[in-house]
Amino acid sequence: MTFMKCYGLGAVGFTMLVTVIGIQWYLFAESFFHQMMHSNGIRAWHNVEIDIYALMNTLFGISAVLISFGALIGKIKPFQLVVMTLLELSFHAFNYECILTGAMEVMDIGGTYADHMFGAYFGLAVAWSLRKQRNHVEPATGYIADIFSFIGTLFLWIYWPSFVGGAAQADSVQQQRAIMNTILALSASTVMSFFTSSIMAKDIKFRPVDIQNATLAGGVAIGCVANFNMNPVNAIFIGCAAGMWSTFGFNVIQPYLFERLGLHDTCGVHNLHAMPSVIGAIASIILVAYKQTGGRRHDADVFADQDGQSWRQLVSMLLVITFAIVSGYLTGLFLQWIEPNSPEDFDDSAYWEVAGDFTYVNSETSQMLQDELQESQHLLSREKKDVSEPSNRLTASNHSTKLNQSNHSSHMNNNINSSSSFHGSKKYEVIKHQASTELAL
């Protein structure tokens, strides 16, 4: 989330706010629905039990909210975010306790269904319900912001196996299988992400957004089958498929959804969480169906109902997607009703005290400045070329180049002043000064 140049404080700070609020709320929400499904009569209800596993389930639930936040980050007010957190965690607890583990008894040790699939489609539905209220522009990125985002990707990659295998019994065979299969899937998705990113680029270069996200797609897809007793090739194949489709989504599918449906997905959660979770669900359906035939019973310790588990996996996928989209769309409508959104996106200064060197630049202004600076570099290169010519032409050439450069500087200042007047903000004066300084150099 830190890839946004002008929304780093919001990305990190609001993530922390969502987490601490969610910990307190989800403990009670999950306990309520769990007791509602498993208690016989009102007298069987009891106080909320809090232990290490209860806190672990709470963090799993919060991960779904943070996934949804990825589709909305920079476009939603803090109060709206808090309300969405409380509502989504309530829906998530109902989905997990009543639908997945209660009625369907789905196999999902790593949260592919419960967290990634639900959180992604819930956040996308909220983003789509808010589309009529805004005209989105892409957030400006930067070199330092991309480096911070890469560091976050490395931390997620390292700790992802513990996220998938943490819910299993400690030191059990299932936990060991979950960790090993997750590492294999992550490795495969990383290799495939680098390969696909390079072949889809025009100049055969790696796109930071692909490597920052699609490398983790294997961990998303493998979650619901990580504890299965399967050939390592299966885990590698699932990781390759997830990494390839995730990279393809960032390059092709995400722009298509924005142009056709007006669906603005800030962090690309549809590519990293939604599509890989569906790939993992399909893999679980196929693997379980294979294990159900020919008298194979080597995963009897995993399946709740081996004879009908493949159908449970299929129906659960459809139920989760449907429930997430409906509940997310209704939540988005409610957020519009309680508080309209602000006109500017991806701007930390709207909610934070920022340092004096903070400068808000949206994608349109950033592209304009880049074009202007490229033109100035072209003029300077022409001046250097003229210096190498005979001395009798040097004076006239330098005079002409300086005159062109002076006219170009005036043209650039006029464009930036127009942008400053359009946005009505003094922050663009800083951009003007920086651009003029670079041109003079």
Q: How does this model look, in words?
A:
The protein has two domains: 8-350, Ammonium transporter AmtB like domains (Ammonium transporter fold, Orthogonal Bundle), CATH 1.10.3430; 363-440. The protein is built from 14 helices and no strands. The protein has helices at residues 8-38, 52-72, 78-104, 112-129, 143-165, 173-200, 208-213, 217-221, 232-261, 269-292, 309-338, 363-387, 391-423, 427-440. The two termini are 34 Å apart. The protein is an all-alpha fold and 441 residues long.
By CATH, the superfamily of the largest domain comes out as: Ammonium transporter AmtB like domains
Report how far apart the termini are.
34 Å
The number of helical elements comes to 14
Give the CATH architecture of the largest domain.
Orthogonal Bundle
Write down the domain tally.
2
Largest sheet: none
CATH topology value of the largest domain: Ammonium transporter fold
Unreliable parts = 391-397, 399-403, 410-441
Helix content: over 70%
- Let me know the number of strands: 0
SSE pattern? HHHHHHHHHHHHHH
Strand content: under 5%
Mean pLDDT equals: 81
Report the top-level CATH class of the largest domain: Mainly Alpha
Indicate the overall shape.
Answer: globular
Please tell me how large the radius of gyration is: 26 Å
Q: What structural category characterises the helix and strand content?
A: mainly alpha
